[in-house]
Amino acid sequence: MLVDDSAVVRGFLSRWIAAEPGFSVVGGAANGQEALDLFDVLRPDIVLLDIDMPVLDGPATLARLLARRPDLAVVVVSTLTRRNAEISLGCLARGAVDILTKPESQRDLAGPAAFRGELMLKLRGLAARHRRTPGRGMPPLPGFLRRAALPATVRPRVLAIGASTGGPAALCRILRGLSPVSDRMPILLVQHMPELFTGVFAEQLRTQTGLAVAEAEEGEEIRPGRLYLAPGGRHMGLGSGEGAAVIRLRTGPPLHHCRPALDVTFADVARLFGPAALGVVLTGMGTDGTDGARALVEAGASVIVQDEATSTVWGMPGSIVKAGLARRVVPLDGIAAAIREAALP
C-alpha cells in the first residue's frame, strides 16, 4: 500500500512494484486518514509511508496503523533533510521497520536507478518475512555451533557490530546491556543508513544509552570507552597509526548496495586485531557482513549473530549462519550477555 500525497510519486512506485514478480500494489492514499479508511479493506503486508502529508501526517498514521496490526511492515519514505532524519528515526523507535530516502524532486525520481534498486531490495527482504512457515524453527545447527560454549583462547580488544533493517532498535537494546564491556574496548558500529541520518542516530544512541557514541571521524584513534558509528555514505575501515588503530573513512563504491558496508569494517578489524576481535551481526537484509565474517573467522576471531525468531529480517545473520561462520546464534535479548561472556575475564 502506497501512502503519499504526491500522485506522481505514487505513480512511479506503483509501476515499479507492479513490474516486480510476486508483488502487487493493493491501493494508494493521498494522506494518512485515507490510508486508515482503506486499510481494513486492502489488508496490505507492507506500507510505504510518506512523512509530510495533509490531514494526517506520517508519524500519526504510523501509530494508528500499528495499533491495528502491530506486526505490519511499515517503511518510512523521506527526503534527505536533518528534520526528516529526526522524524524518520523517531518512527523507527515507534515500530517502523526501515527508512527509504527518495530524491528531493519529482523530476529526479525518474532519473537515477539507485532509488528504484534500493526500494526493491528492501521490499524483497521484507517479503521474505511472509514466506516463513508457521511453527517451523531453524534447521539443526552445525556441530561447531553446538560447541559455542567453549571459551575463546584470546579475549577480544575490539568489538564490531553491524545491522540493517530493524537495527536501530536492536542496537539500542544491546548497547544498554554492554557495561562494563563498553568501558574496556572500543566499539565500532555499522548501521545501514543514509548520510545526515547517522549523525542524528548517534545523538539518539548517546542520549538513550548514556554511552560515548559519535560518528567516526577520519584519522581519529580508536580508544576504549568510545563507540564509533560509521557515517552514512562512507565506508568505515581501520588503518595503523602511531602504535594504535585509527579510523579510515572511504568513499568507494557501495558493497552489496551498502555504504557504509559492514564487510569493509570487519575485514580491517580482522587484519589489525586477528583473534583479539569479536564481531556481532544483527537483523538486516542482504548478505553484507558475510565476507567480513569469513575474514574474522580465518583470523581466529569469533562472530555472534542474532537468531531468526527475533530478527526483523534474517538476511545478514542468516547468510553468516548458512556459510558456517557463526560461533553463536542468539536471541536479541541474549546478545549483550553473550558479548559480555566472550569479552570479560
TrEMBL record:
Catalytic activity as recorded in UniProt: L-glutaminyl-[protein] + H2O = L-glutamyl-[protein] + NH4(+); [protein]-L-glutamate 5-O-methyl ester + H2O = L-glutamyl-[protein] + methanol + H(+)
Encoding gene, per UniProt annotation: cheB
CDD domains found in the cross-reference section: CheB_Rec, REC_CheB-like
Cell location: Cytoplasm
Domain CheB-type methylesterase: 140-339
Name this protein carries in UniProt: Protein-glutamate methylesterase/protein-glutamine glutaminase
SUPFAM superfamilies according to UniProt: CheY-like, Methylesterase CheB, C-terminal domain
GO cellular component: cytoplasm
Domain notes: Contains a C-terminal catalytic domain, and an N-terminal region which modulates catalytic activity.
Role according to the record: Involved in chemotaxis. Part of a chemotaxis signal transduction system that modulates chemotaxis in response to various stimuli. Catalyzes the demethylation of specific methylglutamate residues introduced into the chemoreceptors (methyl-accepting chemotaxis proteins or MCP) by CheR. Also mediates the irreversible deamidation of specific glutamine residues to glutamic acid.
EC number: 3.1.1.61, 3.5.1.44
PTM annotation (4-aspartylphosphate): residues: 50
Enzyme class: hydrolase
Xref: InterPro entries: CheB-like, CheB_C, CheY-like_superfamily, Sig_transdc_resp-reg_Me-estase, Sig_transdc_resp-reg_receiver
PANTHER family for the chain: PROTEIN-GLUTAMATE METHYLESTERASE/PROTEIN-GLUTAMINE GLUTAMINASE, PROTEIN-GLUTAMATE METHYLESTERASE_PROTEIN-GLUTAMINE GLUTAMINASE 1
Post-translation changes: Phosphorylated by CheA. Phosphorylation of the N-terminal regulatory domain activates the methylesterase activity.
NCBIfam families: PRK00742.1 (NF001965)
Lineage per the UniProt record: Bacteria, Pseudomonadati, Pseudomonadota, Alphaproteobacteria, Hyphomicrobiales
All copies of domain Response regulatory, residue ranges: 1-117
